[in-house]
Specification:
This protein is 48% helix and 24% strand. The protein has 385 residues and is an alpha+beta fold. Strands 10-12-13-17-16 form a 5-stranded mixed sheet, with helices on one face. A 4-stranded antiparallel sheet has the order 1-8-3-6. A 4-stranded antiparallel sheet has the order 2-7-4-5, with no helix packed on it.
């Protein structure tokens, strides 16, 4: 395979160049060959070599927005680079890297300046190239400004959405706290008056206790979310069947109050998962509690634990009101909650399912949902063995 000579390439780089100038460039330059992925110039570095590509290819790239690398162009035989840094006595404006075996003619700063002074063809080529690259730089700067403007607009939009979510969250929390507080306070006042006796008193105390439990649950969820954002749990080999059994037992009374039965099926000899039992129990409890909440007409929910294809899974199915299709993509978002499905009104602050997803994702798992409006929902948690 023949090698392309500098005499063949230089007229492409500098149209009209004389034979004498070609020979002088060759005599004052050094031909070198570089393997792929060799960095010839470093963006920001002060370097004093002018390059003419004889064979091969290089990529020219630049870092924008402090970390994003942008490909500007590819250069081929007859192209040259490095003149801007020498002419302007400035750092390299871009990084140039070989993409394949590449031969270049390297000319030192001193020799380049001397040739530029005496060669009209080189001077004209430099003027054309500098003008073109200044235009490219202007276009890139304008595009960067446009991109920054878009990013700024997106940031403002996100801030506005966060502020709206904060307001809505505070309003919801205030309402959800006030309702059980007012109920508990009302019954406490009645109890203090001595107006209730016997079974009526016992019922009032149960009501106060239930409303205080609701307040504690909301507070604990908020604190747990903050803890999750700040502290990563330590994982240990965990029996997911025991975690699920514990969650079910804690929720049986609440299920009974809603006239909901819980059927549990846990496969024997389940493989363990690596996890934090406390946070996994909270995640499973959130999913089961959600099934209870959205079964306002009672009935049974099923909780099944089994394993397949290297995963241990928990499936919670109910025959409740289901989830409207437009709400389905949002149910795991923090603070998203359904106020009404059909004729049924529901309370909540939208923390339970968001906690469940965050916990499961921390455990390198996933949570999926299938639902039919009016027929019920099935949530499945998958965790790696």
């Amino acid at each position: 395979m023949s090698t392309i000579t500098p005499e063949e390439v230089l007229p492409r780089a500098f149209p009209g160049i004389s034979k004498e100038d070609i020979q002088e460039i060759i005599s004052k330059g050094t031909i070198r060959s570089y393997p792929p992925s060799t960095i010839l110039t470093h963006e920001g570095a002060r370097e004093d070599i002018f390059y003419i590509i004889l064979e091969g290819e290089v990529r020219v790239s630049k870092v924008i927005n402090e970390s994003e690398e942008r490909l500007l162009k590819h250069l081929h035989p007859g192209d040259f680079f490095g003149e801007m840094a020498i002419i302007h006595q400035a750092p390299r404006a871009a990084t140039v890297t070989t993409t394949c075996q590449t031969r270049v003619l390297e000319v030192s700063e001193e020799a380049f300046s001397s040739l530029l002074e005496r060669s009209n063809s080189m001077s004209r080529a430099m003027i054309r190239q500098v003008s073109q690259r200044l235009r490219e730089n202007d276009e890139m700067a304008i595009e960067d400004l446009r991109q920054k403007a878009r990013q700024l607009a997106q940031a403002y939009q996100q801030l506005a959405e966060l502020e709206e979510a904060r307001r809505e969250f505070l309003t919801t929390i205030a309402h959800e706290m006030r309702t059980p507080l007012m109920a508990a306070n009302g019954f406490v006042q009645i109890l203090r008056s001595g107006m209730l006796q016997g079974e009526a008193m016992s019922s009032a105390i149960d009501t106060v206790s239930r409303n205080i439990a609701d307040i504690i649950s909301i507070t604990n969820n908020i604190l747990f979310l903050q803890e999750m954002d700040l502290i990563l749990p330590e994982f240990t080999p965990t029996d997911l069947g025991s975690v699920v059994a514990s969650s079910v037992e804690q929720l049986r009374d609440r299920a009974g109050q809603n006239q909901v039965g819980i059927r549990v099926q846990i496969a024997p000899s389940l493989p363990r998962v690596r996890g934090d039992p406390k946070s996994l129990e909270r995640a499973v409890s959130a999913v089961i509690d959600n099934a209870i909440k959205f079964s306002p007409d009672g009935g049974d929910i099923s909780v099944e634990v089994n394993t397949s294809q290297g995963e241990v899974w928990v499936r919670v199915s109910d025959h409740g009101v289901g989830i409207p299709p437009q709400a389905l993509p949002h149910i795991f978002e923090r603070f998203f909650h359904l106020d009404q499905v059909g004729k049924h009104i529901f309370r909540g602050v939208g923390l339970g399912l968001s906690i469940a997803r965050q916990v499961i994702e921390q455990h390198q798992g996933r949570i999926e949902v299938n639902s039919q409006l009016g027929e019920g929902s099935t949530f499945t948690i998958y965790l790696p063995r």
